[in-house]
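Input structure tokens:
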């Protein structure tokens, strides 16, 4: 067992029953010309967490923890994209349209791929998801139960959209979730900070929060 000094109180976990869930570290969210930028966002705050995410995956692999990369992407026919999602934002170049990184948010296109530093490795799980939450319309819950995983360590983007949605879905399914605060980011720094507070408020109503250094300290103890 390892114990992380976390908020709102210590987070104990067994690496054998823990997965790192790296949410949507795709070019479509982190690079100019991708979906995030087409939504009108400055992508710079997201690129800054890449080195910390690399360290988190290295730690996970060294500790024998499962690594799961989620990918928000749709099939080329957009059969898994609700019309409401495609229409939202009235974008001139939106989901499924040809953009600077290929068809926006479509599986197999350059933009849907992971950033070069965070490419999946042999033994990792890659989970394509059509929604913001990684449990919606995917086999994630069955997969985690099959692997005996009870604890989830979260990094990725964006903190208040896909990371928080997935943490809330995980919470309602009985998983114990820790958010690595410096391995996640938002286009809106205030939303990132508010999400961390929302997660840990009310005695950890959604889960726990800690820094990567706190996790590394726990793992070396
Ligand atoms: N992965 C994820 O968070 N998808 C989003 O659309 N995020 C935004 O913040 N827009």
């Amino acid at each position: 067992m390892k114990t992380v000094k976390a908020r709102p109180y210590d987070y104990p976990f067994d690496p054998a029953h823990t997965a790192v869930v790296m949410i949507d570290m795709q070019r479509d969210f982190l690079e100019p010309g991708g979906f995030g930028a087409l939504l009108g966002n400055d992508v710079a705050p997201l690129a800054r967490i890449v080195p910390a995410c690399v360290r988190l995956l290295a730690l996970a692999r060294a500790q024998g923890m499962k690594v799961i990369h989620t990918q928000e992407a749709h099939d080329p026919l957009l059969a898994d994209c609700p019309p409401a999602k495609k229409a939202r934002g009235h974008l001139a170049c939106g989901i499924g349209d040809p953009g600077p990184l290929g068809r926006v948010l479509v599986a197999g296109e350059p933009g849907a791929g992971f950033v070069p530093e965070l490419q999946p490795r042999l033994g990792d799980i890659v989970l394509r998801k059509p929604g913001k939450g990684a449990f919606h319309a995917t086999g994630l819950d069955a997969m985690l139960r099959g692997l005996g995983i009870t604890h989830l360590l979260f990094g990725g983007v964006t903190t208040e959209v896909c990371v928080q949605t997935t943490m809330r879905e995980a919470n309602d399914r009985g998983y114990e979730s820790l958010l690595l605060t410096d391995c996640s980011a938002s286009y809106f720094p205030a939303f990132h900070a508010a999400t961390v507070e929302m997660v840990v408020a009310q005695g950890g109503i959604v889960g726990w929060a800690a820094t990567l250094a706190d996790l590394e300290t726990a793992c070396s103890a």
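The two ends are 10 Å apart (CA to CA). The longest strand covers residues 176-185.
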